[in-house]
Write a structure and sequence with these properties.
The chain is α+β, with helices and mostly antiparallel strands and 455 residues long. It has helices spanning 3-26, 34-57, 62-83, 88-117, 126-156, 164-167, 169-182, 188-191, 193-196, 200-275, 279-292, 305-320, 339-358, 410-421, 447-453, and strands spanning 324-330, 366-375, 378-386, 425-431, 434-442.
């Protein structure tokens, strides 16, 4: 087999696993049409092939090879970030990580060959690419499992974490160190191959993928902690709302007891005035009674006590912040959506609305909430609120948090997850300094309704 053919096979063994990993695992994250994605890949393939050819066949120093390798990677990062729903920082991390995998397979190939022959082979030796082919087949399922089970979930759930602005440096430095020092053609092996090549490749591969594994687990842990904090905050709101409702109920019971105790005395006084035919005294007494017992209509937005407590809590919160809150609630006592999920939706959206109004300098602050049932199993929730400033939207269409710069809004993510759980339809709009959320939720009949309707 000619030297050129062997070079081409080695290059293909380097490029194909990279593209297969990216295509098989991350294809569903494309943000433009499939045709444009295919065009982008077809444009990058020759660039990647040319860069790899120059890397293997160009007799340059390791520093120039490193610059060439990074240039090809940068072009790949720019293209991947343009085609897929990932930030530029995540794209850098991902592309260089996949590149590290193929380079590790190449290093492992040389290492296995060295163990059997006690010599570092030339890149044009025929047994080398055969060994590389079988090692790729052996390691590809492991890399696929790592990317699909751990790396992709970590990327998807942490799109806007500011941590990515730093994490990409780790695989980049890993790649630079590999090209300058660890690669089989590095000068370090020319003088001490027997001593250095025995331990450097396996240690390097273990260190590389242990680092990537720990980074992915750390990202998952950070995201889970943020989600738990959001749930804890929502639980605190639920407890506070229920406590407030209990206080109002206790106050109402005490006031009712006081009225029942005083009413006997009022009847006696009224009877004396009637017996004495004191009309003026009766009128005066009724005026005093009216002043003592002003009209205090009970605030009941809906018959469900839990949701009603939630609405009362946020109404008071809005009033304290100087926000005009209007509620139009037309729902029954029992919902096709569990109370816990409904409270998560209301809690997140109303908290965001109150926070947005608090940040306004203008006094024209408002929140409008409407809840209706379009059918016995379909609930519609519409929340509008005023806001000032810019609305930040990530490239994947998700809204970013206004509390933490660059981070995806966990509250809205929770709302979207619950909406998807009930096969709902979410819609977010913002124009003329008004932010509007419309949700359509499709619930299920509860067991009581099913048994009642059974023949």
């Amino acid at each position: 087999m000619t030297t050129t053919a062997i070079y081409i096979i080695n290059i293909l063994l380097f490029i194909i696993p990279c593209f297969l990993l990216l295509a098989l695992i991350f294809w569903d994250r494309q943000k433009i049409s499939y045709v444009k994605v295919a065009i982008g890949i077809s444009v990058y393939l020759p660039i990647c092939f040319l860069g790899t050819v120059l890397y293997y066949m160009w007799g340059a120093s390791t520093i120039l090879q490193s610059l060439l390798s990074l240039t090809t990677a940068v072009i790949g990062v720019a293209l991947f970030s343009f085609l897929m729903r990932y930030s530029i920082w995540q794209s850098i991390f991902l592309i260089i990580l996949v590149k590290c995998y193929t380079e590790s397979v190449n290093l492992l190939t040389y290492y296995v060959y060295f163990l059997f022959t006690r010599s570092i082979p030339e890149a044009t030796q025929e047994p080398l690419f055969i060994l590389a082919f079988f090692l790729t087949l052996l390691t590809f399922p492991l890399m696929y499992r790592f990317c699909s089970r751990l790396l992709k979930p970590a990327l998807d759930c942490s799109f806007s974490l500011t941590t990515w602005r730093v994490l990409w440096v780790i695989p980049l430095l890993n790649n630079v160190i590999y090209t300058l020092i660890i690669t089989p053609s590095a000068p370090i092996y020319t003088t001490a191959a027997d001593s250095a090549f025995y331990f450097l490749p396996p240690l390097w591969i273990i260190l590389t993928f242990t680092t990537f594994f720990l980074l992915a687990r750390t990202i998952m842990a950070i995201t889970q902690n943020l989600t738990l904090q959001q749930k804890l905050q929502l639980s605190e709101i639920q407890v506070t709302a229920q406590q407030k409702q209990n206080e109002l109920l206790k106050s109402s019971i005490e006031e009712t007891g006081r009225i029942r105790h005083d009413i006997r005395h009022h009847f006696l006084a009224l009877r004396n005035l009637v017996n004495n035919q004191d009309i003026t005294g009766l009128e005066k007494y009724f005026e005093e009674l009216s002043a003592s017992y002003p009209d205090r209509p009970s605030i009941i937005y809906c018959d469900n006590s839990t949701v009603n407590a939630f609405l009362c809590y946020f109404r008071d919160l809005a009033a304290h912040a100087g926000v005009d809150m209007t509620l139009s609630i037309g729902v029954p006592e029992t919902f096709p959506i569990p109370e816990a999920d409904l409270c998560i939706i209301l809690g997140n959206l109303l908290e965001n609305a109150v926070e947005a109004c608090k940040r306004m300098k203008s006094e024209q602050r408002f929140i409008r909430l409407k809840m209706t049932m379009s059918s016995p199993l379909t609930m519609i929730i519409i929340i509008e609120n005023s806001y000032e400033g810019d609305i930040h939207i990530a490239p994947d269409g998700n809204y970013l948090s206004s509390k933490t710069t660059g981070r995806r809004g966990i509250g809205i993510s929770s709302v979207l997850n619950i909406t998807e759980k009930y096969n709902g339809i979410p819609r977010f709009e913002h124009r003329n300094n008004t932010f509007k959320v419309s949700l359509l939720l499709n619930g299920q009949k509860n067991k009581a309704d099913k048994s009642a309707s059974a023949p």
